[in-house]
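Appendix B. Chain record.
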Amino acid sequence: MASVSGVTSSNSNSIYGNRNVLSGLATGMDTESMIQNAVSGYKTKISSLQQKQTRVTWKQEAMRSVSTPMIKFAQKYTSYSSSTNLLSSSFFSKAVTTTTNGANASKVSATGKTSSDVQLLGVKQLASKSTYSISAAALGLGGSDGTGAVSITAGEDLNLSKVMELSNVSGTLSLKYGSNRTIDLSFDDLDTYKTAEDFVKGINAKLAGVTVSNASGEVVSASTMVAATLDAASGEITFSDKQGAGNSVTIASATGKIKTTLGIDESAKSSTLNVKDKTLVDESATVGDYLSGKSLTMTVDGKTKTITLPTYDSAAANPADNFADSLNTAVQKAFGTGVSVALTGGKLQVTGQKGSTISINATNAVGKALGLGGATATSYLNTGKTLGDLLGLSQATDADGNITAETLAGIAGTALKSTSKITYNKTTDTYSDAEGNLTDKDGNRLGADGKQLYGYDFEINGTKLTFTRDSALENVLTAVNSNTGMSLSASFSKTTNLLQLTAQETGSAGQIVIDDTITDSTTGNLAAKLFGVINDPTSASTETAKGTFSAGRDAVLTMSVNGTKMEVSRTDNTFDVDGLSVTLKGTFGYSTEDVKDSSGTVTVPAGTFIEGTEPVTFTTSADSDKILDAVKGMVADLNEILKSVHDAYSTLPNYKSNKTRYEPLTDDDKSGMTESAIQKYEEKAKQGVLFGDNDLSSLYSKLISAIAPGGASASTLSKMGITTNYSEGITSLAVDENALRDALSSNPDSVRDAFTSTSGTGGLMVNVSKVVSDYASTTGATKGILIQKAGSSYSSLSLLNNTMQDEVDNYDKQISKWQSKLSDKVDYYTKMFTRLETLTSQMNSQSSMISGMMGG
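Structure tokens predicted for this chain:
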């Protein structure tokens, strides 16, 4: 018996994928059909899941088509950045233009409308805010006093001939940890280590100051992963893995003196450095030698230039003056003669023009060598400095270096201890409280230096804050600005070098009070040390106001209302008179100086009302077109939303003749259909996909309640031509243009209130806006109900984080699981039938051979 075997390859839609399957020619069986039948249940399950997933995506798309118009509605009619914000009272004020009349009309403005006859007869004084300004120089905090030329004066003498200890291991050292982490350590010229033990301590301190990602992806201090240890006998420093994970720690690269001094060979990939008999500190150079050729950057009035320091000539008649003169030449070449450099009393001084701002930035080593005290020096107060740096800080320590007492500007500090739960971080080997403050295991607050932190009370206007030695002055100013109890604005000007406090409100009530002690104790007030005592003439204070204080004043004016003349005071320059919002801009109608007769006798004191001054009067005119257009547009858009929402939950799904719903097409279904047929089918299948949705039904009901509030609100809206209609099962809004225009002309305030009022049943836009926000808000921690349910392209994060997307993702997981099961079964049956085909083929061959031997 002859047999023929062959191999066929399945097409792309086959369950076999890329498998090669024997055709069944040896056994005579239709193996492909048999396998197809055997796994048909799996295919049916997968198709069912895919159909369910498709239906969810249809619902998601349909829900977004409902929420998108609502989002656009909110952006157009309730956003403060929109020019048609019907939720804003100020939008409606544009319906009435109020003009001022008379010779002094420019000194008054007004908005709104009043039925009273209002006239302003004179303005004696405008309302003003309490202000206090003080020079940082007068406070002893640094910078120029602002009265003349500005300058930066070094704190120490420029001693160019002094021997300067410099590091012989300055530069960079890069360590490779494991296979893919690099730790870069940087050593400054002033990082001097006289012994190998000091150098190892310095390396470990550098490791503690840089961060690296651990195996879990957390950013931790490099010192938690790598340690440097010294073998004193051999002088060998070894880098090792502290994690116990067996990672290698090798030297990847080195630059600068550390490479040459220690003879580092980067290609060796060594884990050690040898410092035996190495000179780690260079004591051969002078300050002048070190500074020669170094550079710094100088910024004058926002213009920055790099300045190269001149070469130190020790043989010059006066080396220091020669150095300063050469530096002056370089600076004036960069910035002109408005800036100069000179030695004043042995100290380097940079001088600029009045009102200029000058800053110098260099390396820490260069700054200290020049006598500037560090890397940065300015002609103005550096608000980035901490209070510990700016004010006198005194600390008492025990034998272990722990701070046992501390004073700041002479004020005794109080040791701070956290009252919240303390958490230990094993990775960084640190403790912190619930607010993220660094503590020890007992909850004692620690400063940036890792030592006990002390607090100092700071009180203005009876409101108390607490700061520490680590608090930057700029953070103090920010805290004052954000504290509602102080009601102050705090600022600093680099140009004038003035600190300024300003009451947030005008009027005599908005004062600035700083006592020398805290209200409820005799403890010194840190605010008085920073600003001086203000507005407290009864205080027997050792601190005095060193700045300029101006008390707030009320506005004083004379006006006539319906013929009644009165002189009144107001705390603000803008105030209401029977619905008219009046803003004062200048004074008039009062004498500005004493009037004397021929004998010198004062007949009319300054500040006396001058009878007969032409009053300021007010006229109003309606300009309602913009509001009318906005309302008409809002009504049209809202009616579209109402119809869309109603149709979405009330439209019945399509059913086939056999009473079953149109289900999404499977890939097998689509294989025999044209594109147009698929499109028509899916249109029927998508109909009513949101039928009966409870959220949409609830949304529609709430929108109806918002536009038809009933009672007095409904009556008010109806009078101005805004009513509701009911047709074909849907409620909608309607606008009578003539009635609305009349209302805007006759009583614009009532129209405004009908839309924007937050009292009673609320205005129309207030109520509609709340519903729209509840269901379609794309901002804030909690998104709208429809956004949480289906997401929106107007909130990118919501596209991946919504209830329906969770369903889609869950179906993906189920489909993947069943596809794996299908694949396993196909593999099982394919192997089984392939083996059967192979055995049958072998038997056929043996049978043919035996038959041939027997002559059959």
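Further analysis of this model is presented in Appendix C.
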